[in-house]
Amino acid sequence: MGYLRKLGAALPLAMVAPAAWALDEGLPVLPVIGEPVARGTGFHTPVTSLARDIIWLEGMLMVILTAITLLVVGLLGWVIWRYNAQANPTPATFTHHSKLEVTWTVVPILILVFIGAFSLPILFKQQTMPEADVTIKVTGYQWHWGYEYPDHDFEFLSFMLDREDLAAHGYEDRHYLLATDTSMVVPVNRNVLVQVTAADVIHSWTIPSFGVKQDGIPGRLGELWFRAEQEGVFFGQCSELCGVNHAYMPITVKVVSEEEYEAWLDRAIEAYGGTPREQDLAAAE
Length: 285
Known about the structure:
There is one protein chain. By secondary structure, this protein is α/β, with parallel strands linked by helices. The chain is built from 7 helices and 11 strands. It has helices spanning 2-7, 13-16, 18-21, 49-82, 98-127, 258-272, 277-284, and strands at residues 32-34, 134-141, 144-149, 154-158, 184-187, 192-198, 203-207, 212-216, 222-226, 232-237, 250-256. The strands form 3 sheets. It has a 5-stranded mixed sheet. A 4-stranded mixed sheet has the order 1-10-11-5. The longest helix has 34 residues, at 49-82. The relative contact order is 0.18. Mean pLDDT is 89; it is low at 1-19 and 281-285.
């Protein structure tokens, strides 16, 4: 909070109002699902089809890479053993082998075609935006995040929590450098469209458990989408080197039930001076 207080004079009052910091307190206690694990080497727990697709693709590629590596190492070992100066004192004088050259050209092409047949559909699925149930605009700043819910005309900022503030916000000490004072809140099992940009330098918004990552570039608007299938707390961090405090602008997303989301939305609209949902429904009719 110390960093936030220093910036408070330069930020819109509605975006840093102390009452708004406590909005998440009205949410139910959620399990922390998407977080790094000590000495972990695998992926975060996937809760979207996008993340599961990425993990499956990585597993398939690792099988191919392992097979190629073993083949190449095996061939090198065999050549060293079979054609060293002691075992083969009189080397052959030929320089070409047409069948072998065709083979090592065609086989890699077939491998790449095979990989592309699986990777391209996954890429297209990530980049084809479905009809959004919730739209959120994310803006990267040096060094914090801004979240705007354009359908309801409110926005707020999200800053990393100091270690001494973690317990007051319901986090544990291990969540230091991951937890933020405010969270992006979304409903479970709904298509969420996230528009990503930046106000100063390039940032990158990512949640590993969702399988999404998008660079935020000043003057441009990128898009990503996800559909979280499990309620919980998920962490991410800026993934683009953006300056001296790059390591201190984490991301917190809370996935809640539809009822809890609507209740949070009403509280956020009131706290940030947004458009009440009743007016939105009346305008739609």
